[in-house]
Design a protein that fits this description.
Length: 156
């Protein structure tokens, strides 16, 4: 499981993951992924780096889609504190929420279908201000390194 305590060292080292790791699809298909400055990270740092990469990709794709409203997370990734807190810190205009159970997809589907669902969701708090600022700076730097002019497609 990702340890939030490892995140500051990842941000400070500017270790990065640049997509893509799949030739079959996705926004960067056909590109060869890169690890940058990750060789000095220990196991906890690499897990935090991978979790941060997932949060950055989620943030990027939500931006491209023009997504608004609550972000509902479910499954094992919703239990990853680095991922959820980073995403909440990057999407300050939206609430990031996750179910307290793994069956949240069922509840999300019912909600999207217009049914009123009485199911508890946990709102993920954004990181403290200094960490949130560091995440935003890291995101700007990461986006400049993306292939295919991806940063230019971003609204902000």
């Amino acid at each position: 499981m990702a340890d939030e305590a490892a995140l500051p060292s990842v941000l400070q080292s500017k270790a990065m993951v640049i997509p893509s790791f799949s030739s079959d699809g996705g926004p960067f298909a056909g590109r060869i992924g890169q690890l940058i400055r990750a060789e000095r990270l220990g196991a906890e740092g690499r897990v935090a780096l991978a979790s941060l990469y997932l949060a950055l990709m989620t943030d990027l794709l939500l931006e491209w889609l023009g997504a608004q409203g609550d972000i509902l997370l479910d499954g094992p990734l919703a239990e990853n504190a680095v991922y959820t807190r980073a995403l909440a810190s990057l999407r300050l205009d939206q609430r990031v929420r996750h179910s307290d159970r793994r069956q949240a997809m069922v509840y999300a589907g019912l909600h999207l279908a217009g049914f009123v669902v009485d199911h508890s969701m946990v709102t993920v708090p954004a990181s403290r201000v200094a960490m949130a600022d560091a995440l935003h700076d890291y995101r700007l730097y990461w986006r400049r390194l993306l292939p295919n002019g991806a940063a230019r497609r971003c609204v902000s």
